[in-house]
Design a protein that fits this description.
This protein is of the alpha+beta class and 282 residues long. Helices cover 30% and strands 27% of the residues. Strands 2-3-1-4-7-5-6 form a 7-stranded mixed sheet. Strands 9-10-8-11 form a 4-stranded antiparallel sheet. Helix 1 packs antiparallel against helix 2 (48-65). The longest helix is centred in the middle third of the chain and has 19 residues, at 94-112.
């Protein structure tokens, strides 16, 4: 079983989001849309053959209906289909997630003439991170597939193969963007990537937990809260997409709501088979 987390540069038009969700087919397990980021995360999970069909269909529809040229949002992006990581839910299947990534990369580059940058394990066993791609693309890093310059309509895309990652945000009241950037830097580390964004009249410390086995959301929450002053406060925590159940199991259930965690938003819950009508599980 494999996960594919497709980040698309559209988070405001519900009609388009519904169309994209339908294109995800039976592999679609979750959609998280954010109008401030103007970005949506479509989580697809399935066996390799079906997953590949649905990933291709969703990407194709995004290129059919979206245009990056007039896009505005607080999140960094360089393409309509911005980031597409494949994740092996069983560690032993990691090489196949790289094969799925490479097949999708070749298809996107050849079919849509869009530059594709790989991340994760790349040529000769080297490791390339997504932040590296964002910093170096079109400068000293050439696309792995597709043309050497970005598409005027669709931009470029980063296609990855990586372990499970959890995207998790803290929304802060009465806090300046400068202070939010300081807080993001303070919680950033080997297991956490973080950025700060202005989101309306609040700010956000946006985190990627890249080591879900050692980093807990409560650790970040408590550290940020301890450094707030005066009227500054955490208004809410937000899970983006799905998390492994093990992440919740390492937190006190009494804090799940405070941390934006919900057992119905776990990978394990979303891939459970649905019982036929009139045949309720006992």
């Amino acid at each position: 079983m494999f996960e594919c987390v497709i980040n698309i540069s559209e988070g405001r038009d519900q009609r388009l989001l519904d169309e994209l969700a339908r294109a995800g087919g039976p592999s679609l397990r979750d959609v998280h849309a954010d109008p401030w980021h103007h970005r949506s995360v479509f989580t697809l999970i399935n066996e390799p053959d079906r997953l590949s069909v649905d990933v291709h269909a969703l990407i194709a529809w995004a290129y059919e209906v979206l245009d990056i040229s007039a896009h505005q949002g607080v999140h960094p992006r360089f393409g309509v289909v911005d980031v597409v990581p494949y994740v092996a839910l069983a560690r032993a299947d990691a090489p196949l997630s790289e094969a799925l990534r490479d097949e999708t990369a070749r298809w996107v580059g050849a079919t849509y003439d869009v530059p594709v940058f790989l991340y994760g394990h790349v040529t000769n066993g080297a490791q390339r991170s997504l932040p590296y791609v964002r910093a170096h693309a079109f400068k000293d890093l050439a696309p792995d597939f597709g043309p050497p310059t970005a598409s005027p309509r669709w931009g470029a895309v980063a296609l990855g193969a990586r372990p499970i990652l959890v995207a998790w945000n803290l929304w802060l009241r009465a806090t300046s963007i400068e202070r939010a950037r300081e807080l993001a830097a303070l919680v950033r580390g080997a297991g956490v990537r973080s950025l700060a964004f202005e989101v309306g009249d609040q700010v956000q410390v946006s985190c990627n937990l890249i080591d879900v086995h050692t980093v807990r959301p409560s650790q970040i929450y408590d550290r940020v809260e301890s450094m707030l002053e005066g009227a500054q406060s955490i208004s809410r925590a937000e899970l983006v997409g799905l998390a492994p159940l093990s992440l919740l199991e390492r937190e006190d259930p009494a804090r799940w709501a405070q941390l934006g965690l919900d057992p119905t938003a776990t990978i394990e819950r979303r891939i459970q088979p649905i019982s036929p009508p009139g045949n309720d599980a006992q």
